Amino acid sequence: MPPTVKVVRRPEGAKTSYLRATLKGMALTFKHMVNPAKVTLQYPEERPELSPRWRGTHRMEVHADGRPKCVACGLCPTVCPSNCIRLVGGEDDQGNRYPIVYEIDEFRCIFCGMCQEVCPVEAIHVGVHFENAEYTRDRFVYDLDRLMEQDHPSALLWDPSDPRSE
Amino acid sequence: MNEQSMTAFLIEKTIIVLSVFGGVMAVVALTTLIERRVAGFIQDRYGPNRVGWFGILQPAADGLKNFLKEETNPAAAAQPYFVLGPIISLAPALVTFAVVPFAAPLPTPWGVVEMIVADVPIGILYILALSSLGVYGVVMGGWASNNKFSFLGGLRASAQMVSYEVALGLAVVVVLMMAGSVTLTEMVWQQQQLNFWFAFPISLAFILFVISAFAETSRMPFDMPEAESELVGGFHTEYSGMKYAMYPMGEYSHMLTSSALMATLFFGGWDIPFWTGDDAFLVGGEWIKGFTETGAPVAAELAWWKTLFTFLVFGAKTYFFMIVYIWVRWTVPRFRYDQVMQLGWKVMLPTALAYVMVVAATILTLDQLEVAYGFTFGLVLTAVSALCTGIFLFVLDRGRVMDGAASGARQRFRASRELADAETPALPSGD
Fold it and tell me: What would you report as the CA-atom Rg of chain A, rounded to the nearest whole angstrom?
């Protein structure tokens, strides 16, 4: 017999009171009927409380003048374990690097959050957000404009000096 | 009613028939919702609460869905019977309500209106005859589906119906002996006269009636014909759309009728407890509420508000049993088929037979001793029945009712398990 199998023997058949057992069950169900400890979340009206470190779909931080903070350093596509970030960098007249193409395939993404951790200018973030439904598959490749438009809060990074976020 | 013209009679009965039919259908629809809500509460869920206020429009949404769904007609099914099955299952369940009085008579400017569709002289026999017809719908549907599981469901339904009809009939016989009549109006009247609801003087009959009624309506501990886990839905496996919906509708109206019967036969029907002001019965064309010391009839005082209140009381009593039906369904697991048969033939039938004899003997003795049909009469019968009920429960539960569930056995069980554990050889370690 494998060690995980727990053997529960029936109490001897002739020694149990079915009547009492039934009444006990009825009492239990009645208790729940009049005072249901409801655990269901009435979703569209009641929102779930997400952890501040929840890692959802991405967002790109922007400067005050509306430019993305990204400097196209190429760290996030390098670190990305699922290869879902496509970045083509460019340089403007003042020598500032900026992303010409910045796309994230949210279907490929595994939401590890390493892009946010590795970003030197705190531009790309995973967000505290979960409602991502779309009507077509290609809508799940977020381009730069889409990433900049996202307005949900960014995920809080794990702080090694405060591992439980207390 | 005796001096009414035919037209007045037709108008009166049309109104009553339509309102009773509408009322029954409305309650059936509501009960489907309440069943799901209560099931939800018992399982710590909400149940359907989206359509309308607290989900009150869910039955309407379900009905609409069922009308719009595609009706599947299996190629191998016997078409006429396949269509006839749901109809035969629903119709008798609806017409049985016709003989149940649901309120005190209503005085109108055109005469006193009885709150019953048809006060037929055969009363309870009509109900017994028609309610058992419902099973033909189940058997027919199960057979016509040409599906082995459906067929098994239909067979189980018929066997179960036959087994429990016997105990049900014998329980009703006891009620008939108490009331001395088969009409339900007179049973209500007798309970008002006795100042005792029949549930007390013939308590064991009530218990037998409830158990048999559960089996007759094939509700949860006895839902062998459906048995989702064994027969994939049983007799209604092949049904869809409105044809399917008629089976549950039949089941719920059956439940409603049997709840109304429990309320009428054993809990005084529309009688308001501890108050004689609502008593009314038709004797020789006169509505009376009782007799004086000398035996002269006292005229009943009828009023519309009494009708209303008695109707509410009847509704409350009936719906209490509906809730019990639902409550039991979500508590007690299904019996095994042989257990159902064993309970029906080896327990219910002999008990009912013996109990009929005991009650008959008691009533005969009381009559010989010239005890008047009244409080003392009821009290003696209550004592006798309480004894019978005690013995029945004690024997049924093999003497464990008083002893508690495995009180001594639990210790012996623990000891035996420890012994068994000690004997089990040590398991080889994981390396």
Answer: 26
The confidence score (pLDDT) of residue A15 equals: 60
Sheet holding A85-91, edge to edge: A85-91, A97-105, A141-142
**Mind listing the pLDDT tens digit for each residue in A88-123?**
988 888 888 889 999 999 999 999 989 999 999 989
CA distance B184 to chain A (A): 31
Residues of A with CB under 8 A from a CB of B: 1, 3, 7, 9, 11-12, 14-22, 24-26, 28-30, 32-34, 36-40, 42
| Angstroms from A52 CA to nearest CA on chain B | 28
- B45/A12 Cβ within 8 A: no
Q: What is the dihedral of CA B183, B185, B188, B192, to 10 degrees?
A: -120
- pLDDT tens per residue across span B203-251: 888 999 999 999 888 887 888 878 777 888 778 888 888 888 888 888 8
With 0.90 as the threshold, say if the pTM is over it: no
Q: What is the 3-state secondary structure (H, E, C) of chain B?
A: CCCCCHHHHHHHHHHHHHHHHHHHHHHHHHHHHHHHHHHHHHCCCCCCCCCCHHHCCHHHHHHHHHHHCCCCCCCCCCHHHHHHHHHHHHHHHHHHHHHCCCCCCEEECCEEECCCCCCCCCHHHHHHHHHCCHHHHHHHHHHHCCCHHHHHHHHHHHHHHHHHHHHHHHHHHHHHHHHCCCCHHHHHHHHHHHCCCCCCCCHHHHHHHHHHHHHHCCCHHHCCCCCHHHHCCHHHCCCCHHHHHHHHHHHHHHHHHHHHHHHHHHCCCCCCCCCCCCCCEEECCEEEEEECCCCCEEECCCCHHHHHHHHHHHHHHHHHHHHHHHHHHCCCCCCCHHHHHHHHHHHHHHHHHHHHHHHHHHHHHHHHCCCCCCHHHHHHHHHHHHHHHHHHHHHHCCCCCCCCCCHHHHHHHHHHHHHHHHHCCCCCCCC
Predicted pLDDT of residue A82: 92
B431: chain A residues, CB-CB within 8 Å = none
Q: Do the chains contact at A9 and B410, CB–CB below 8 Å?
A: no
Residue B175, C-beta contacts closer than 8 angstroms, at least 6 positions apart: B124, B187, B198, B202, B205, B209, B265, B266
Question: Radius of gyration of chain B from Cα atoms?
Answer: 25
Indicate the burial class of B53 (C-beta count within 10 angstroms; 0-12, 13-18, 19 or more).
exposed
Residue B191 CA to residue B189 CA, distance in Å, equals: 5
Instruction: Report residue B386 as tokens.
Output: 């309480």
Q: What is the largest CA-CA distance in chain B?
A: 98
Say if the ipTM goes beyond 0.90: no
